[in-house]
Specification:
Number of strands: 7
CATH topology of the largest domain: Glutaredoxin
Strand order of the largest sheet: 5-4-3-6-7
CATH superfamily of the largest domain: Glutaredoxin
Distance between the termini: 50 Å
Radius of gyration: 27 Å
Mean pLDDT: 92
Largest sheet: 5 strands, mixed
Number of helices: 24
Shape: elongated
CATH class of the largest domain: Alpha Beta
Strand content: 5-15%
Structural class: alpha/beta
Helix content: 25-40%
Length: 472
């Protein structure tokens, strides 16, 4: 592939962006806004089709600028340029922003197209891709469009173009140039988080920190993104007007994840700026009832509303303003990590306390690799932060390094057993996680992946492994 790649193109970055879009793995290129960080646009100068010199810095310092990477032969690119041109030459936004169109095809083909459309904004032909190679978000797919403010920061990035983005563009540009900016929402359906973000930046940033934001990716990783009973709790507006539709992938991409409207309701009903009336404030009990429609005992591990609810409140948004891009990436990983998987404030008791009542299961466990995990070479050389992969309850009350907690014992999978031992007849995950009724994909695999994460065990096959440790 290298021999077909223009010399200035970073092939590794291209593949990361392309694979991320295709596999939905969440790679964020360096020129894409992320958690409130708006990266600087790469600086360049070039000659336009008319022979004039264009300097991106001179343009954005005068007016907010939309940079569109396009091909004259791409129908989506044609639609986008036609739409942007209508804003450029007419209406409230006329004269208030600039467009720079950068073609990846040769000058003659580009000029024929531009002249036929009579566009007057600057157009560049970059057939060698020397300039577009400055933009990590460009992987070859087009159009890619960046909205740049007057400080030179990329405040928004769009890949592709369709009708959904029309109102987004209008609102983003009006916000940048300081025009009145009433929300342009769907009048009878869902509008999506990209729309909400324009007015609610702080709330959107806090939401992006939560697992709600990438809930759909967890289905993709497991190959369940086409299973309706799974999809319903990992997207927004499933089965409702304007919401996520399994059969309409182009529209559905704007509603993946548990977005604003999953909790607040569709914008045309819940947005005060749109309805001109303040929505009724929900009581805590109402929020709890709503959360429990998805966070059932089958799909969640010991979901305790009073502990989880504060994690999604917008009032708890942390200040990331002084963090670098790398620090923000690390922060979001740490923020999303569930420190106590079982969320059960009980002591670990050790496998010996399970043996009397669960002799058959104990005998089976003794024959598995779990029982001998602590004796492997990997365990003997494991750093302190990885000891939990080979021992039980590491660092928790009653857990390793107490004697009798070596190996991956019963409580590594079922949670600390103190309350269950004291009251064995009591049922529920707050006593012990039985793993009999819980969803294998939502709950069981989550427990397994705590130790068998991709970075620690890239060849781990959950379906095969679970059969080896499942009590017969």
């Amino acid at each position: 592939l290298g021999s077909f790649t223009p010399p200035d193109v970073n092939l590794a970055d291209n593949w990361r962006v392309h694979a991320s879009a295709y596999l939905k793995i969440g790679y964020i290129p360096a020129d894409e806004p992320f958690l409130g960080l708006t990266p600087p646009v790469p600086l360049f100068t070039a000659k336009t089709l008319s022979g004039a010199r264009v300097d991106i810095r001179e343009l954005y310092q005068k007016k907010p600028t939309v940079l569109v990477i396009f091909s004259p032969k791409c129908s989506h690119c044609q639609d986008e340029l036609t739409f942007l041109n209508t804003l450029y030459v007419d209406g409230d936004l006329k004269g208030k922003f600039e467009i720079v169109a950068m073609s990846i095809l040769e000058e003659r083909i580009t000029a024929d197209f531009i002249n036929s459309q009579r566009y007057t904004f600057p157009v560049i032909s970059d057939q060698s891709r020397k300039i577009v190679s400055l933009f990590p978000s460009f992987s070859g797919s087009i159009p890619v469009s960046l909205i740049i403010d007057q400080s030179g920061s990329i405040v928004s990035l769009h890949r592709g173009f369709d009708d959904f983005l029309r109102n987004i563009y209008i609102m983003e540009l009006k916000k940048l140039v300081g025009l009145p900016n009433p929300p342009l929402l769907s009048k009878n359906g869902y509008s999506g988080a990209k729309t909400c973000e324009i007015c609610h930046e702080k709330e959107h940033l806090q939401w992006k920190l939560t697992r709600h934001a990438d809930a759909f990716q967890s289905l993709v990783r497991k190959g369940e993104e086409e299973t309706p009973q799974c999809v319903v709790c990992h997207v927004t507006g499933f089965g409702s007007s304007g919401g996520y539709d399994i059969n309409d992938k182009k529209h559905a991409k704007y509603f993946v994840g548990v977005q604003c409207e999953s909790c607040h309701g569709p914008g045309y009903q819940s947005c005060a700026a749109f309805t001109n009336s303040k929505p009724k404030k929900k009581k805590t009990a109402e929020w709890k009832k709503q959360c429990l429609t998805c966070h059932t005992k089958t799909e969640s591990i010991n979901f305790i509303f009073s502990k989880r609810y504060p994690r999604i409140l917008h009032t708890g948004a942390p200040d990331l303003s002084k963090m670098s891009r790398e620090e923000r990436l690390q922060f979001v990983r740490s923020y999303r990590e569930k420190k106590d998987l079982f969320d059960n404030p009980a002591q670990y008791m050790g496998a010996a306390s399970c043996k009397e009542c669960h002799a058959k299961q104990f005998a089976h466990w003794e024959k598995t690799m779990h029982a001998r995990a602590h004796a492997t070479e990997k365990a003997k050389t494991a750093p302190a932060e990885k000891l939990f992969r080979y021992n039980t309850g590491v660092g928790s009350p009653g857990g390793y390094p107490e004697a009798g907690r070596e190996g991956v014992q019963c409580e590594s999978c079922h949670g600390p057993g103190e309350k269950h031992v004291k009251k064995p007849e009591a049922k529920g995950q707050s006593y012990i996680v039985s793993l009999g009724a819980e969803c294998e994909s939502c709950v069981v695999e989550q427990i397994c992946r705590r130790c068998h994460a991709v970075e620690d065990d890239p060849e781990f096959d959950f379906q095969k492994a679970i059969e080896n440790v499942r009590h017969k």
